[in-house]
Amino acid sequence: MPANINDINSASSSSSGPPDENPVLTAYESYVRDTPLVTRYVLNAVVISYFMSFFVDPTFALANIPYFTLFRFQLYRVITSPLVCSSILNLFFAFMGFMNHGVKLEQSMGSALFGVLFFKLTIFTNLLFLVVSILLYGLTNNDGYLAGVSVGVWTVLLSIIATECAQAPPNSKRKLFFLEIPVLYYPLVLLALFSLFAGFKLAYCLGVAVGYLQGFGKLDRWKVKVETARKWESERGCLRGFYSRAGYISVSSASGPNAWAEGSGGGGNNESSSGGGGGPVAVRAPTDPGASSSTPSFPSSGGQSLGGGSKRGLLSRGSKSPKTKEERAALLERAAERRRQQRDEGDSAV
């Protein structure tokens, strides 16, 4: 009998210990902590639309279809079309592409300016898609052009890649698997690869065209100034409700070119770990929006490649990698100082 009581006591004491960590909850908390706000909201919307596809067709309800957008006056489709996902393969590539480009762009520009860029490219691509579809319908009298679809986050992501490549130095190159491609033609080669495996999509072509227009400054008249974004983030601004949310990056705390250099995983500059891994950089804690900072800059060099390793200096023009031991030691020292500052900022924010 005493042995049985001891067994019961030992079992109860072992069960009263701290429970094991839930791996799903831990992964979600890491996702919220390391993913900036706008990127996280876009990916969350894509995931929700995928699970909705088991019950209803989100493409029919939210995609940009000229017949419904124009003749049924469902103008909301111009904004909601990139948030639609109806297959697990599209979901996988959406996360792979947007976690690569969206995270670093939002860290470099700030959440407000990145959100403006995302929806600006979305609206211009969809408006151009509607214009081209109506023109083709008028020329051919083919009702199929009115039933065309502009849908998926890759429509906007191709625009972002084209914008980045248009602003890169003209002599730089990107690696597509084992091919070295001039950076200006990289979006076109990527578009051709998509068309080869998924078929021709008019929306993808127009997305790349809009990205080139944005990169060459043809859409600057609709550009939001940094001062305007700061007003939005002020105490009386329209974004004051988002400013204190997890993952929001203000214009003042945006990393600029350092967002790409710190997350490249080389030279110990990665902020997410001291070992210099290739994971995403942890989101910074918000700072005072009225503080002075430099204007966030957009990628302006060769950038990262599809199927290749990370590239250095995606946002910096004419930057050179450290060649001497002294330069490398200074670079590592600056990276360590940045990590200490961000750790202190994170502790003060908590």
Q: How would you explain this protein's 3D organization?
A:
- There is one protein chain.
- By secondary structure, the chain is mostly helical.
- 54% of the residues lie in helices and 2% in strands.
- It has 15 helices and two strands.
- The protein has a two-stranded antiparallel ribbon.
- Helix 7 packs across helix 8.
- Residues 262-295 and 307-320 have low confidence and may be disordered.
The general outline is: globular
> How much of the polypeptide forms β-strand, as a percent range?
under 5%
The number of E-state strands comes to 2
Structural class: mainly alpha
Could you list the spans in which at least 5 consecutive residues all have pLDDT below 50? 262-295, 307-320
Can you summarize the main beta sheet? 2 strands, antiparallel
Q: What is the C-alpha radius of gyration, as a whole number of Å?
A: 23 Å
How many helices in DSSP terms? 15
What structural keywords apply?
single chain; 350 residues; mainly alpha; two-stranded antiparallel sheet; 2 strands; 54% helix
Please specify the SSE layout and strand pairing.
Layout: H1 2-15, H2 23-34, H3 37-52, H4 58-62, H5 66-71, H6 77-80, H7 88-109, H8 111-140, H9 154-166, E1 173-176, E2 179-182, H10 186-198, H11 202-215, H12 226-232, H13 240-243, H14 258-262, H15 325-349
Antiparallel strand pairs: 1-2
Helix pairs in contact: 3-7, 7-8, 7-9, 8-9, 8-11, 9-10, 9-11
